[in-house]
Design goal:
166 residues; GNAT_dom; repressor; toxin-antitoxin system; Acyl_CoA_acyltransferase; acyltransferase
Length: 166
C-alpha cells in the first residue's frame, strides 16, 4: 500500500467505501465534499492510495471568532475585533488506515497550509469543532485550547502551531 501526500480532492479520487467509524464524517465526504470544493465554501484535501481510494481527508475554510469566545492568548492584542481563523472543518482517517500516523500527518499539512494563508491574509489561529471527546483529546495533544465560552470549540494560535510542522 502506497499513500500519496495530501492533495486537493479531485475527480479521480474514489470516495465510495470510506469509513472512519464516524457516520457524520463519512456522510460529509460522500455527499458534500465535492460540492463544497466546487462552490469554494470549503477545500478538501485527501490522502489516497495509488488507485485513488481515499485513506483520509481534511477540509479547510475560513471564518472568525468573537473575541469573547477566544482564549486570552488568542484574543490578546485584537481589541474588540473578531479573531480571523482558518477552520479545520473536518479531519478523518478510514478505519483501515487508522494507527499509521495519517491523522497527525494531515493535521501537520493543514497547519502548513494555514501558515501559508496567513502569509497573504490576516489569520491568527486555527479553529476546530471536534466531533467527540476522542477527537478533542487528539487536538489538545497538539496545543489546541478550548474556548472559554464554547467547550467544543478548540483553537490553536499560529505562533504555537509552528512547533508541529517541519
Amino acid at each position: 500500500m502506497t499513500l500519496r501526500a495530501p492533495e486537493p480532492l479531485a475527480a479521480q479520487h474514489r470516495l465510495e467505501g470510506f469509513d472512519c467509524g464516524k457516520p457524520a464524517l463519512n456522510d460529509w465526504l460522500l455527499r458534500h465534499a465535492r460540492q463544497a470544493q466546487g462552490s469554494g465554501s470549503a477545500k478538501t484535501f485527501v490522502v489516497a492510495e495509488d488507485d485513488g481510494r481515499v485513506a483520509g481527508y481534511f477540509s479547510l475554510t475560513v471564518g472568525q471568532v468573537d473575541t469573547l469566545e477566544a482564549p486570552e492568548r488568542i484574543r490578546k492584542g485584537m481589541g474588540q475585533y473578531p479573531v480571523p481563523v482558518v477552520i479545520l472543518a473536518r479531519l478523518a482517517v478510514s478505519r483501515e488506515h487508522q494507527g499509521l500516523g495519517i491523522g497527525v500527518g494531515m493535521l501537520q499539512d493543514a497547519i502548513r497550509r494555514t501558515m501559508l494563508i496567513a502569509e497573504q491574509a490576516g489569520i491568527r489561529a486555527m479553529l476546530t469543532h471536534p466531533i467527540d471527546e476522542e477527537a478533542a483529546r487528539f487536538y489538545t495533544r497538539f496545543g489546541f485550547i478550548a474556548s472559554p465560552l464554547r467547550e467544543q470549540q478548540l483553537l490553536l494560535l499560529l505562533k504555537d502551531a509552528r512547533r508541529w510542522v517541519r
